[in-house]
Amino acid sequence: MKPKIRKHRLALTLLFSGVVFCFFMITMVVVGGVIIFLIHRGLLEPSGSVPRLYRLIFRMMMASVLLGAILSAVTSRFPLKPVNTIINAMNRLAAGDFKTRLHLGKYLSRHPTAVEVCRSFNNLAEELEKTEILRSDFINNFSHEFKTPIVSIAGFAKLLKHGNLTEEQKAEYIDIIEQESLRLSAMATNVLNLTKIENQTILTGVSEYNLSEQIRNCVLLLENKWSRKNVVPELDFGEHTINANEEMLRQVWINLIDNAIKFGDEGTSFRIGITETENHIFVSVSNTGTEIPAESKEQIFRKFYQADESHSSEGNGIGLAIVKKVVSLHDGDVTVSSGNRKTVFTVSLPKLS
After folding, report:
1. Is the pLDDT of residue 27 over 50?
2. Which of 20, 26, 71, 103 is the most buried (most CB within 10 A)?
3. pLDDT of 85-97, one tens digit each?
């Protein structure tokens, strides 16, 4: 333990001892005062002379104070031990040791309050550890995914610079450079959007607009992706309006539709449906293809998480985190069900007035 920290702990011990000592002193003074008061009132008859009795009372008070000071100095270490344990654990956690877990001893850990403190601390440490692992994985994966299109762009630009290419080759290389540039832009935009949304706590920019038209536009925006994979969209809804932040919900539909295309089997279809109740609007996006493991259903909405641990598919674990945050800002909910090679994401949004 560092000298500065040891000094602070000693100060805490002395403070606690001082408080206990003050209680002892107050108790002794009160008891002595009561005895003297009773003697003056004649309610307590002294067995010897009054001066001698006063001296005896004074000595008893001083002895009690001295004994109390010694006992408080010795015993204060025991109630302060759990405090020191908690402080040490918090310091390790703050230093980045997310494997730290709190244990308050064999006997104290049986107390309900101690059990609650340990459980809360350990849950915090566990969540921080998971977030740190996901963050590290995200940095590694994102760096790889960011580097790949940059290398591709640089390589094809170099070939174009050297010349000696046919017009068909030039057109092909230019198309690849354009696609990779758009891919870089999409990744950067997703990260910026997540940062912006995470810092927002109040929903603003709410307006009434045509939800059905917005979703149709999002499908058209991703036409290149679903046509290239030979996936067919099925739009099963009429005209619906909603009061919401139009730009934010646009990100929700783009991410959900993009996932449906990305993880759907080639040659299948993805379906989008809209239903309404008196107070809510439900939008479902489903596809046929890769299932989401049961143990991953609660994790997929965490930022940086990817159910595909092999990272063979595109993505960086940001899209569904954006979906969850945006829907939460609208006081809505998003759920997922997956089985028999069919996955359905359902967004529930309240009808804001």
Report:
1. yes
2. 20
3. 878 888 888 787 8
Counting the structural domains of the chain, the total is: 3
Going by C-beta distance under 8 Å and a sequence separation of 6 or more, which residues neighbour residue 8?
A: none
Answer yes or no: do 41 and 93 share one domain: yes
Strands 206-210 and 232-236: unpaired
> Same structural domain for residues 237 and 316?
yes
d(CA 3, CA 11): 12
Domain that holds residue 244: 206-350
In this structure, the answer to whether residues 57 and 187 fall within a common structural domain is: no
Helix extents (H) in the chain: 3-41, 50-75, 77-94, 112-162, 167-198, 211-221, 223-228, 246-262, 319-329
**pLDDT 10s digits, 125-137:** 888 887 777 677 6
- The one-letter code for the residue type at 123 is N
* Residue where one domain finishes, among candidates 71, 103, 127: 127
Pairing, β 232-236 against β 269-276: parallel
- Report the distance separating Cα 320 and Cα 270, nearest Å: 17
The yes-or-no verdict on residue 309 having pLDDT over 70 is no
Boundary-marking domain end, from 147, 168, 198? 198
pLDDT, residue 63, reads: 65
| 30 burial via Cβ count (<10 Å: 0-12, 13-18, 19+) | exposed
Asked whether the predicted pLDDT for residue 65 surpasses 70, the reply is: no
**φ and ψ at residue 319, rounded to 5 degrees:** -55, -50
pTM (2 d.p.) = 0.56
Tell me, yes or no, whether 343 and 214 share the same domain: yes
